[in-house]
Specification:
10 strands, 8-stranded antiparallel beta barrel, single chain, disordered N terminus, 146 residues, 1 helix, mainly beta, globular, 55% strand
Length: 146
């Protein structure tokens, strides 16, 4: 199995840094869940148990991500999350998205960093953020489409 790893969140033995060529392409969302500080899955992410989504990294540094809630997601959860902007890879370990367009005005102009792991045709992004002062550890698994 070919594994490319970045960031301390993953802990994949024998993994190596990710290259830009390993990221460029179109990806389909496989799963989106939250973990505790040790990496143990806690519950599904904000889009419910079976969200759908598409992520595109273009060779010229453009990024576009769209995700939506599954029909059976709990009430009160967001129904759509998405943005577009630019991306860059830092030290082969972290993907940084600079957000230009999104329904979330408070995200425009911000940068969001993701630890990244590439295993064969899967790309896993680890996001560490604070929501209302509470730390959240999110894991998004993407399957290569092209």
């Amino acid at each position: 199995m070919r594994t490319e790893r970045a960031g301390a969140a993953a802990g994949v033995p024998g993994a190596r840094a990710v290259t830009p060529q390993a990221v460029v392409g179109t990806w389909r969302l496989v799963s989106f869940h939250e973990t505790d500080e040790t990496g143990t899955a806690r519950h599904e992410g904000p889009l419910g148990p079976d969200p759908t989504g598409q992520l595109m990294y273009l060779p010229d540094g453009q990024v576009s991500v769209h995700m939506m809630r599954a029909p059976d997601a709990p009430p009160g959860t967001p129904s759509y999350m998405g943005y577009s902007g630019t991306w860059r890879l830092v030290d082969g370990t972290t993907l940084v998205h600079r957000i230009a367009i999104t329904p979330r005005r408070d995200w425009v102009g911000t940068e969001q960093a993701r630890d990244v792991v590439r295993e064969e045709d899967r790309l896993t992004l680890y996001a560490h953020t604070r929501i209302q002062g509470v730390p959240h550890h999110r894991v998004l698994v993407w399957q290569r489409v092209t």
